[in-house]
Amino acid sequence: MHCRMLCTLLVVIASCLVSTVVASVFHQEGPECFRKAPEECAPLDVTSSRCKNFGTDIYCCHIDSEYQLINGLKAAVKPSQKITALHIRNMTLVRLEVNIPEWRNLVSLSITDGNISQIIGTLESSHLSCLNLSNNYIEETDPLLISKLSTLVRLDISNNNISLTPSLSPSLVKFEIDLSNNPYINCHNVLDMLDQISRGPSWDQLHFDNRPQTVCRLCTAHTKCGPYTRVNMLYVDNVEYMNKVSAALTLELTCCMWTMSSI
C-alpha cells in the first residue's frame, strides 16, 4: 500500500511540471560576486602577467597552469596589499586545488568560463560571502568544498555537469544557490540539502535562483514499485513539494546517472 501511494505521488508530481514552471519566478537578492568582462582581460602574450589589479580586486584570464596563476597573482598584487575579491576567467586546468592560504581573506571568489571538471580541497575563509563557479565543465567537487564557509550567502554553480552538490555549513542563516542548467543533478541530493536546512538550528531560508532552468533527475529503478527504470525530470519546486509531502520518499530514491532511459 505504501509503495502504491508513493508511486502515485511521483506520477502526480511529474504531471505538474508545466504548471510549476509557469508559477516559478526568478529570485535573487544576495550579493553579486566580483566579475569582469572578457574585454577587460590583460593582453594575451607570453611575457605579460595574466592578472590585473583593480584596487582590492584581482582579475586573471587564460590560466593554463597553477604556476601561471601563482606568478600572475604575485605580479599583480603589491606587497602588503589586501585582496578581497578574485575573478579567474577561462582556466583551462582540468583539476583545481582550492585550499590556497592566500585565498582565506577573500570576500568574493569567481572561477568562471573555463574547462575545469574537478575541484579538489576545502575552501577555508571566515569572510567569503559569494562563490561563483559557473560556466565550466565541473562534474565533481570535494564533498566538503564549502562546508567551512559560515559566511557564504550565494553560490553559483550553474551551467556545469555536476550530479551532487557539496555539503553546506550548518552555521548558514540565509543562502542562495543557482543550480540551473546542470542536467545530471540528483533529486536525492537536493532533498538531502532541504533536509539539512530543516534540521539546522539557525536556518532562516534557502532560495534557488533561476528556478525555471533548475531541474533534477528522479530515478525509480529497481524499487518495490516494479523492476523497470523510470526517470522523471523534476523542477526544483516539485522537489520542495516532495520534501514536505513525504519524508519517506527519500528512502525510495536511487541515484540517477548517465545510463538511465527517459520516460
TrEMBL record:
Transmembrane segments: none
Glycoprotein recorded as keyword: no
InterPro entries recorded: Leu-rich_rpt, LRR_dom_sf
Source organism superkingdom: Eukaryota
Signal sequence region: 1-23
Keywords attached to this entry: Signal
Protein name, per record: Protein halfway
